[in-house]
Design goal:
The structure is a homotetramer of 302-residue chains. Chain A contains 14 helices and 12 strands. The first copy, chain A, is globular, with a radius of gyration of 18 Å. Chain A is α+β, with helices and mostly antiparallel strands. Chain A starts with a helix and ends in a 5-residue tail after the last helix. Chain A has a single domain, classed as DD-peptidase/beta-lactamase superfamily (Beta-lactamase, 3-Layer(aba) Sandwich). The longest helix of chain A is centred in the middle third of the chain and has 14 residues. In chain A, the strands form 4 sheets. In chain A, strands 3-2-11-10-9 form a 5-stranded antiparallel β-sheet. In chain A, strands 4-6-5 form a 3-stranded antiparallel β-sheet. Chains in contact: A-B, A-C, B-D, C-D. The interface between C and D is medium-sized, with 35 and 35 residues.
């Protein structure tokens, strides 16, 4: 495995310079582009890393998987009245579809869907961001996981598009709490900082039938675990989910911080990271690394 | 396996009566609703069946997988300039998205995408329908496979919406041949009649790394096989692909004739059939049967 | 004229009962349906009335003409960078078009456009609602004109859809001030209460080349006056502007309070009122009354 | 008037070179750009001209007014079940709106609406194009009016987008005849060649309460005349109708051949022509000429 990781790194590093670091908020734009890391965590507890695998970065949309997991634990199948399970077929923050489909977002991984999930968690927890942070610390085994307040505040300042979506859903009676409060929680979760190692470990329960070995906890049932993986496989990479299935063939979730997490069911959880993004908003070098990794080891589930 | 199939049949039969046989053309509306069959074909050549597994039915959109396979063999990766690989996120025959995305359909399994694939095959073969029929006979090992001319003519008569899509793509320079000719070939392919057994055998190469054991033929490379499966997983069930992944967890393709084919990679190809459809246009009892089958045997790839 | 008004009233009264009083906020739903009034004010200062012509009602979207007039006075042609002059071709509060056209609303009479105009006025006046009230009092010659705080607060409480539009425009950098503040001003203006007589007098400058005879004031230039009338003619009646031009043939503006104002250039300003609305959101009896009035007197500008 | 026309010409000629001659079909692209003409025809029968007022050009979408007039004569108000009377708010050939509004086009002046009107005329006349030509010859008093077969054939060859619209409406059961036949008639009507003088005379009935003085014929009733003018005022200039009302203030209809016809009710019919188009597809110099003309003489109906 270490040899393969070295080869992957050699192939991926030259790609840095061809993408673009997310710059829609100043706090993210300052991240140095020349970083690249991989962490692979096996169901037996082995950890393989290369590059900047222990450097923290903003997990951004990867947090949507944690939010979904929390809401599935607490609301079960009832949550699917408020958010769908179908790929969106549109750029990830489009309001058009939301309007035509009466305020019910297509899936929990587009922004509108994640806002509805955050709204549900807001109804359930006194402090949903605190609940989330505690949950993630347990899943990753890292008690030092923190949210970056500067990033969260900057996202809040530039909240207009997300606010528009939340108010639109509210106008369709599909949003229960105060919009501003939910946005605060949502952005605090997006601004959580973790490393490739943290994320590979935190996602390991999805490779292991719902069981997290280092916290010795059955996070979700085996069937719920398959369901989360299925949702990631069809909707986890913004408007590039089909391409990811075609090229990588694994359930995955990306964030504009440059991280991508993927699940090899019954075997591994993987996190790659490199800050520069492709046009679809996914890590450019990360996509290439995962594709090669998947093909070299024959990981595709298809 | 035979015991499981009996249980599945017992669960699925009571659902007949809750769906609706496709009636957009008279020739399909006459099919008797009370039919149900399953065929499972293993990579070792074993065949398991129950119910009306040898009754022929109209394969309709399932033919889109054969068309795609033919075009992948002849055009390779170049074909992806003309058709995308992303889920569509809209009802399966919507023109809206096609217009906003400049005449390039989202994937080869929505009608617009299948028309582009048919247009490509029309450029390659003197008689694309004859090429298709020969190909399917070889894949299924059944030399008697025929197209139903009455159904094909009826589809042609009610071609307005498909014609609108083809002309729209032509207006964007993404359609090369005469619209009427391509529609004729397309409808002839949709009108092919096969049984569950035929389809399970014909799709077996997708479960077997591209190799078809009964025709002793490498139909696609191993990687291309994974790619076709990935496309089915993200886009194979109209606007219910996400739900199918969530509930069944297998690559699959459905048709309005009531058939659904699914692939268990490295193990089985499966075909279920029952003519009544749910609201999304997929076999109602077929979906339930596949869901139970997948859960009982633990087939989900996720 | 008095005889004609009696005939119109006789024709219009039986229509009451066939429409529906606006009920999207409780404060408006309580208005008694059985009310009907007309006021006609001539450029010579003559006033003709019938029915409930001096009863106050919520002017709602009719206020958009006053807002536009204020912003034209202060921003001139520069304002057209932020809002268009084309009919919208969609229900009056659709976000779809706004998104496709990058946050620039089609015209100042759809909600999104009126919000942008309110945002401009917010930049110009310390208290835009006070400026508006003063302006309307002068134009109508009625110093008692007031806004109904209960209605304004109720509109604010149910602000979700308008808030979504404002935030969407802000995300496209086409909205400068705090969304909540602008919404407060906007709803206060909508909640202004006036009678048919007040409105006929307040709109008289649009029939009189921009001159308001009772305040002895040139409100707009002659050309600006024609421009406001042109905008009302193409976009003044939500998604029924074409039908209004076809049936009535006059520039006009309606509100969900049941009022409709129309301009007979160089001759009269007219206000009809009856609270029940048709499906397009315009006063049902009011439309019929204006249509008959226009045809009987030959008022159509076409 | 002659003096004013000279001034207008002096202002308009320098604009030639800033627009773009229609080039979507080769036959139109060859027209020399440096042409400009105006013809004004009064209700008293006076004719004022300047520039290339007797040069024939392709009337294109201006023919839609003749088609509409023919169908109003033969179908009366019944025709409005198949086509609406509202501005479209979209580029003139968009399919999106057509799909969302179930195949009923917004008005008779967008392409989809004109196709439905052509379909109605196809149901009524043995040879709709012959009926149209005869009608136009009578209205213009010019027995030499002809259609350019080369242009008509070229339009037919590049018919894809119009064919897509026609088939889409057929799929919604709002199109009765064979698509190809109706397209042939439609393009033959668009390809009719007339001069500014011909068009000013042919449109004179719309300025004269429906009466055509040179053929001594009541073409439409007075009310129908106002209705056609109202439709032109709200929908006659593609996606620039609002701007035309704002700047010119007259009912008008343009064509991609560079002609624009306008009506000064009870006084004049006007035709301006210059082949170069602005971004909205309307004659650039023609728009400027009409705007100045209208302002200098005070023609705006508003």
């Amino acid at each position: 495995m270490d040899q393969i990781l070295k080869e992957i790194q050699a192939l991926a590093l030259p790609l840095i310079g061809q993408g673009k670091v997310a710059d829609y908020i100043p706090a993210l734009a300052k991240v140095s582009a020349k970083q690249f890391g991989i962490a692979i965590y096996s169901n037996k507890g082995e950890l393989f890393t290369i590059g900047d695998a222990t450097t923290n970065f903003s997990i951004q949309s990867i947090s949507k998987v944690f939010s979904l997991t929390l809401s599935m634990k607490h609301f079960g199948a009832g949550m699917w009245d408020k958010v769908g399970r179908e790929p969106s077929g549109q750029p990830f923050n489009s309001l058009v579809q939301l309007e035509y489909e009466a305020g019910v977002p297509r899936n929990p991984f587009i922004n509108a869907g994640a806002l509805v999930v955050s709204d549900m968690n807001q109804s359930r927890f006194v402090s949903p961001h605190y609940a989330m942070k505690t949950f993630i610390r347990r899943l990753s085994g890292n008690q030092e996981v923190q949210s970056d307040h500067k990033v969260a505040n900057s996202e809040y300042e530039f909240r207009s598009r997300n606010a528009a979506m939340a108010y639109l859903m509210k106008s369709f009676d599909n949003f229960d709490n105060d919009v501003e409060e939910v946005l605060r929680s949502y952005f605090s979760n997006c601004a959580i900082r973790m490393s490739c190692v943290d994320l590979a470990k935190a996602f390991s329960f999805l490779a292991n039938k719902g069981y997290c070995r280092h916290s010795d906890e059955q996070v979700l049932t085996e069937q719920e675990t398959k369901q989360v993986n299925a949702l990631m496989a069809t909707s986890g990479l913004y408007d590039e989910a089909g391409n990811f299935a075609y090229r990588v063939g694994l359930p995955g979730k990306s964030g504009v911080g440059g991280g991508i997490v993927a699940i090899v069911p019954d075997q591994f959880s993987v996190c790659v990271w490199s800050p520069e993004l492709n046009k679809a908003g996914n890590s450019l070098a990360g996509m290439a690394a995962l594709e090669t990794l998947s093909q070299k080891i024959g990981w595709s589930v298809f």
